[in-house]
Amino acid sequence: xxxxxxxxxxxxxxxxxxxxxxxxxxxxxxxxxxxxxxxxxxxxxxxxxxxxxxxxxxxxxxxxxxxxxxxxxxxxxxxxxxxxxxxxxxxxxxxxxxxxxxxxxxxxxxxxxxxxxxxxxxxxxxxxxxxxxxxxxxxxxxxxxxxxxxxxxxxxxxxxxxxxxxxxxxxxxxxxxxxxxxxxxxxxxxxxx
Length: 193
Prior knowledge:
This protein is of the alpha/beta class. Helices cover about 40% and strands about 20% of the residues. The chain is built from seven helices and seven strands. The strands form two sheets. Strands 2-1-3-6-7 form a five-stranded parallel β-sheet, with helices on both faces. The chain has a two-stranded antiparallel ribbon with strand order 4-5.
């Protein structure tokens, strides 16, 4: 039996013509062809406010526009998150989306004695990041800090593991081989990885 996969496209542009959209489509095609069930979330198509206080996060109500996205994430066994690297990390809209989604009562359970426990255990994730710089530079010189924060401080704290990454660099370079990466995404989709 196949996996339940939620593909979360984190590019903030509502125009679906970016490399990340093509990568998400390729992953989706491979997954569906292999018998996995797929749900898609396009963050740029969602209208939601940014959280501004800890009280909003702890006690506030999830915006109606995000209920379907939260349900898809809750349904999934495996999450695939795609976004471009902006200023060394994820775009602000994608971060705002994750802050809204990963609330107590969904991503965390409140412990009776205080504190919180992860509530999304049993799920795995793949993060796919596109960037203009060489991917090896981002990993070696910048220590992939913007992505490692997502891995540890959001996904890891919610109990999601393992979390694997795919870094795709030099996307604006002449001679960039998009076909290679689309094939890689189709294969990852086929494997549900």
